[in-house]
Amino acid sequence: MKVTFPHMGYLWISLKAMLEYLGVEVQEPPPTTKKTLILGSKHAPEFACLPLKLNLGNFMEAAEIGADTILMAGGCGPCRFGYYAQVEYDILQDLGYKYQLVVVEPPEKHISEFLARIRYITGGRPWWQVINAIRFGYMKARVVDDLEKLAQWRRPREITPGSTDQAFSSALQLIIKAGHPRDIPKAKLQGTHLMNQVQVDERKPVVKIGIVGEIYTLLEPFTNLDVERHLGRMGAEVNRSICLSEWINDHLFMGLIKGTRSSKEARRAAPPYLNHFVGGHGQESVGSTVLYAKQGYDGVIQLLPFTCMPEIVAQSILPGVSADLDIPVLTLVVDEQSGDAGTITRLEAFIDLLNRKYQQKEVLA
Amino acid sequence: MKPTVGIPRALLYYEFFPLWNTFLKSLGVSTCVSPCTNKRILANGLKNSVDEACLPIKLAMGHVIELCGKVDYIFLPRIVSVAPREYICPKFLGFPDMVRNAVPNVPKLIDANIDLYHPRSKAQKNLHEIGKLFCSNPMRINRAHKTACQSLISYKKLLQENILPEAAMEIMACKEIVFKNKHSKYDSNGPTIALIGHSYNIYDQHISMDIIGRLKKLGVNVVTAETLPEEIVRQGATILPKKLFWTLGQQSIGSAIHYLSDPAISGIILVSSFGCGPDALTGELIERYIHRTRTIPFLKLTLDEHTGEAGVITRLEAFLDMVYWKAG
Ligand code: SF4
Ligand code: SF4
Question: Which ligand 1 atom sits nearest the alpha carbon of residue A311?
Fold first, then answer.
């Protein structure tokens, strides 16, 4: 059995660590590229959301290098993610792929089924080991998140262009290589050290941008056209409303790990603009925008894949939030045709706008 | 003076109007339905929605706007779920908030939740919330609820007789008991086509370019998910490896699977909106299932505000040619 799973940013680092700790053979898909997208869009339904198309491409590419079992999370709606696995599997079967599919559904209904699926993947490992493995994967996600935050702060302030990203990828390597939970603290220390070595101009004025939107688009640089890096280079400090570890905690562990920033806070900030959950992270997008405005951010960017339902609801509501709380919001819809050039122009225009507002504020203050 | 409640002729209107209308009327409220979709309604909807929204949502926005200034309230319950462990669509969940944001001077919205997601939740409780706005007597609300359910049952029966929604509502409005013979299950001796799609698409004459009327004029019988009893539709959907959590998707898949196994059906038309999220997946499952199981003339129509009538007609004609050719 060679287990694979869809890519979503750095999720693979956690999942791979978790599974390999349990002695499961893992074959993660090759990194998502244009080719993945072409493969996926060719066989996926036209109006499927981009993540589904990329998942499909990932699975097709992983099969070429030996993966034979798909591990996926499920869900119970209202968004499409909960039915991804079944549709993707249907398509793969019609294409003649011989995959086994293991979907880990939320345990709300059948806890026994949930445990059985995990057993299927992990074989006869004792439960304490499974729990340790999960903790291991989660620890990695936390460190990756911390490193990303360091990068988000340093990028707009770096003296040598590109030095932050260089340090970040070296630091990431250290985390990937850590083979045991006990290696994590050291890897984290070294990684942080690497990041701190990046020379910055601490007094440089920077605009602060919050990023909200659909989780996959937020976490997968390929889909969001590397928006964080572009913004950093244009001199903006970004904060992302959802991090990998939070997503893992909320979706894979059902919020079992307490005391982390949770999507609850964002949801609570959404009324009166959006008074009900709408699936995905739609309500969080609205709530986070409110929170960013209150925390004095200069602007918010909403990212969503074409046809993404919860985010279309949020998109319809954000203009009101933006007007009430006086925070500019830019919505970027990505699809398979999205290109760098157009996006960069729009980002630049947005930053110009924020800079002008920022200077006005300074003058008034 | 009696308050007037406006009901947009959009979204789940075609499934639940008799229930809502009877309920409100029994509480002494007058109701007012927006007119059938026309160019102005559509244009207003388009103007006040984000581009990315699907046509039915934009259209519903237009119907809400049409009611502004004419009514005291707009009936726009937040339809979370109408069946256990199922939803309609994320956009339904957010629609009242979208309206509030897009239409600043909108009349008071009746946007209580209709939420039957949890198997123990009761429709009655949801309606009670709404009833309390107009009536302080819980017994009377209860009675109104019972009458409303009765009229929904009669309505569904009429639909199963293959009467179109608007005609069924008319029949109910004038309490006409004797059906004319055009209300028999099949109108003509022509072939029978299964038309699969959300009710707000296929029954809105403007949006669907009157596809049902056109087919009927050409001597074709049309059956839909609504012409089947609910159990049969649900039974059809059980072939899925995992229960589908969208009620409308269940209807589409269940009815498609049922009609596919019915030799009297000589073709299937699948209608969905451009960019519809759930349909992107359910449509795909249906198409793949059809290709695997039976060779039957199949047509997939995607509707949006740019869909040209001419193109639809040409495709319909080509499809019917196939149907007749197959029938020999
Ligand atoms: S949140 Fe958006 S992208 Fe994700 S499954 Fe739902 S519709 Fe697709
Ligand atoms: S089900 Fe489809 S057509 Fe209906 S509101 Fe949702 S996305 Fe739009």
Answer: 2
CATH, domain range A206-365? 3.40.50.11900
Q: Which of A170, A309, A291 is nearest to A241 (CA)?
A: A291
Query: Is A75:A105 a contact under the CB 8 Å cutoff?
Result: yes
Q: What angle do CA B76, B80, B85 make, to 5 degrees?
A: 155
CA dihedral A245, A249, A251, A253 (to 10 degrees): 140
Q: What is the ipTM of this complex?
A: 0.94
Question: Distance between CA atoms of A114 and A120, rounded to whole angstroms?
Answer: 10
Q: Which residues numbered 35-74 in A keep a CB inside 8 Å of some CB on B?
A: 44-49, 74
> Which of B57, B58, B63, B81 most suits a substitution to test ligand 2, by most atoms within 8 Å of the C-beta?
B57
Is there a shared CATH topology between the A2-125 domain and the A206-365 domain?
Answer: yes
Token pair belonging to B213: 């009327």
Q: pLDDT tens digits for A239-264?
A: 999 999 988 877 766 666 666 666 78
pLDDT digits (tens, 9 = 90+) for B210-269: 999 999 999 999 999 999 999 999 999 999 999 999 999 999 999 999 999 999 999 999
CB atoms within 10 A of CB B83: 16
Cα B228 from Cα A86, distance rounded (Å): 26
Structure tokens at B294: 């039976």
Residue A146 Cβ < 6 Å to ligand 1: no
Both tokens of A308, joined, read 């993404």
Q: What is the pTM of this model?
A: 0.95
> Which one-letter amino acid corresponds to residue B193?
I
Structure tokens that stand for B133 in this block? 């706005």
Which is more confident, A314 or B304? A314
Using CB atoms and an 8 Å cut-off, which of residues 70-129 of chain A contact chain B?
74, 76-80, 82-83, 86-87, 90-91, 94, 103
Residue A206's DSSP bridge partners are none
Fold of A2-125: Rossmann fold (3.40.50)
For chain B, the three-class secondary structure string (H helix, E strand, C coil) is: CCCEEEECCCCCHHHHHHHHHHHHHHCCCEEEECCCCCHHHHHHHHHCCCCCCCHHHHHHHHHHHHHCCCCCEEECCEEEECCCCCECCHHHHHHHHHHHHHCCCCCEEECCEEECCCCCCCHHHHHHHHHCCCCCCHHHHHHHHHHHHHHHHHHHHHHHCCCCHHHHHHHHHCCCCCCCHHHCCCCCCCCEEEEECCHHHHCCCCCCCCHHHHHHHCCCEEECHHHCCHHHHHHHHCCCCCCCCEHHHHHHHHHHHHHHCCCCEEEEEEEEECCCHHHHHHHHHHHHHHHHHCCCCEEEEEECCCCCHHHHHHHHHHHHHHHHHHHC
User: In chain A, what are the domain boundaries?
Assistant: 2-125, 139-203, 206-365
Phi and psi at A108, nearest 5°, equal -60, -30
Of B34, B18, B42, B25, nearest to B165 by C-alpha is B18
Domains and CATH numbers, chain B: 4-173 (3.40.50), 192-327 (3.40.50.11900)
